[in-house]
Amino acid sequence: DTAVSQTPKYLVTQMGNDKSIKCEQNLGHDTMYWYKQDSKKFLKIMFSYNNKELIINETVPNRFSPKSPDKAHLNLHINSLELGDSAVYFCASSQVSTGGIETQYFGPGTRLLVL
Amino acid sequence: GDSVTQMEGPVTLSEEAFLTINCTYTATGYPSLFWYVQYPGEGLQLLLKATKADDKGSNKGFEATYRKETTSFHLEKGSVQVSDSAVYFCALTDTGRRALTFGSGTRLQVQP
After folding, report:
1. What is the pLDDT of residue B9?
2. Average of pLDDT values for B62-67?
């Protein structure tokens, strides 16, 4: 009964390759996110989609392209991978509840290593 | 812009010791405040939250009180266990911005 799932869990690849990470949530939430955690554990928002519409796009290289085929899925495609892309990528989802309160639920993370 | 500042780690304690991890924030609107925990090799789990001033969030023996006057949300636990060893993140969401802004994380190591 995984709430937010990501595949793959680990990804090792060569510089210059193109790779995708997939995320799915079964919580019925309307908003999904991608966060990047660097080697020092610092977490930063990359993208957010609400009902398949991009609502947050931080300063991220355009080699990173998110795609949301439906409310339950948010994928991240990365072109021309660079060494600096090595990180843990977390997917999250949320829904604004009564009173405007929302909580984000995170997936287990995808550990990307670019060689 | 919004920011969250946490105390530097690692914090090393003996089992049953009292824990405080300091967190202060700056925000332009009316933020909601959160503590997330990351156990080794795992993802982030929500530990507790507070959505308005003077609210106290609590879970698994951990507590934090939303202090607007000091812009703080310090995490406390009366008696830590070895199983509490993890990285703890303070975070906020601000009015009109749904993404989380995280602090740098504080690693807690509890020794038996």
Report:
1. 85
2. 98
Using the 8-state DSSP alphabet, how is residue B16 labeled?
T
Mutate to test the interface with B, among A4, A37, A43, A59 (most CBs of B within 10 A): A43
Chain A residues interacting with chain B (CB cutoff of 8 angstroms) = 31, 33, 35, 40-45, 48, 50, 55-56, 90, 92, 94, 96, 99, 101-109
Amino acid B33 reads L
Indicate the residue type of A96.
Answer: V
d(CA B4, CA B10): 18
The encoded tokens of residue A73 equal 């899925």
Strands of chain B, DSSP E: 3-6, 11-14, 19-21, 23-26, 32-38, 44-50, 56-59, 62-65, 75-77, 86-94, 97-102, 106-111
What mean pLDDT is predicted for residues B59-85? Answer: 97
Confidence of residue A100 (pLDDT cuts 50, 70, 90): low
Report the 3 state secondary structure along chain A. CCCEEEECCEEEECCCCCEEEEEEECCCCCEEEEEEECCCCCEEEEEEEECCEEEEECCCCCCEEEEEEECCEEEEEECCCCHHHCEEEEEEEECCCCCCCCCCEECCCEEEEEC
